[in-house]
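Case study 2.
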Amino acid sequence: MAARALMRKGKIQLYQRQLGAGRDSLAKAAELLQDMPGVDAADMRRLNGDWYRLNERAQDAKDLYEEASVMLGELEEMLASFDGSASSNHNFWSP
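Prediction:
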């Protein structure tokens, strides 16, 4: 819960161009998340990508955005395997 609050605070600070404060908030949130998989970890990568983009480090930003995308894809596959939808690609309405 605290990590999400810090991430949101960091996001707002980035949008306000308070890049140093935003980076500090994101770093504190990252400490709380520490290698935890899931949506929050992917969102952390995205927010760090935003920080790099705002600091004109496009390649670093792109790398983090790609990491976030891969993490979300893996999470989607994992969740689909729990509900069985990974193997069922049929239309719900078809007979």
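Residues 58-83 form the longest helix (26 residues).
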